[in-house]
Amino acid sequence: MTELNSGVQRKAEIVRKTNETDIKLAFAVDGTGEVKLETDVPFLNHMLDLFAKHGQFDLQVEARGDIDIDDHHTVEDIGICLGQTLREALGDKRGIKRYASVFVPMDEALAQVIVDVSNRPHFENRAEYPSAQVGSFSTELVHEFLWKLALEARITLHVIVHYGHNTHHMIEAVFKALGRAIDEATSIDPRVQGVPSTKGVL
Fold first, then answer.
1. What whole-number distance in Å separates Cα of residue 187 and Cα of residue 104?
2. CB 70: neighbour CB atoms within 10 A?
């Protein structure tokens, strides 16, 4: 794991226990794509692996939830935890690029993710998936995960799937683009003095 010039590593950990889920999550912005995932939702494991590998983040997740009901609470709470650790890891956001826009193709599908690390949480979703399920995974949970990630990380997040006909490919392109966009937006630009805002704070 690389360090900033200040010697401070941008990373955070969280433990979240509720009557519905039990989650331990560790996230490092300046990582190498090292991933360890143990959740009850295999498709989400696959998407988180793509997100971390393409963002060069280190990510560890141990999550158990009430999947006997459905995957909703587990997916939602992992999004919450990931957002909270991202926000904590970035600290005062000094020196970051702040913005990013990334296109990623996956065969016939094309996704775009735009990020502003703004401290103003907002989520815009322009994605319609042909199938309601990918295996046992409900595609509506993609929206739930991304919305909670944006809310808890306090970022502005726009997701656009321009086209595609294979739902798995479309969602995969979104998560790859998400990793790359957050990586770019949180990267340190040596030209930036303080935070990249005329307000002087993010």
1. 19
2. 14
Burial class (CB in 10 A: 0-12, 13-18, 19+), 196: middle
CB contact at 8 A, 4 and 31 = no
Q: Which of 62, 43, 35 is nearest to 179 (CA)?
A: 35
pLDDT digit of tens for each residue in the chain (202 aa)? 333 344 578 999 999 999 999 999 999 999 999 999 999 999 999 999 999 999 999 999 999 999 999 999 999 999 999 999 999 999 999 999 999 999 999 999 999 999 999 999 999 999 999 999 999 999 999 999 999 999 999 999 999 999 999 999 999 999 999 999 999 999 999 999 888 888 888 8
160 and 132 Cβ atoms separated by less than 8 Å: no
**Hey, what domains does the chain have and what are their CATH numbers?**
11-186 (3.30.230.40)
Query: What is the DSSP-derived secondary structure letter of residue 200?
Result: S
Terminal C-alpha separation, the chain: 25
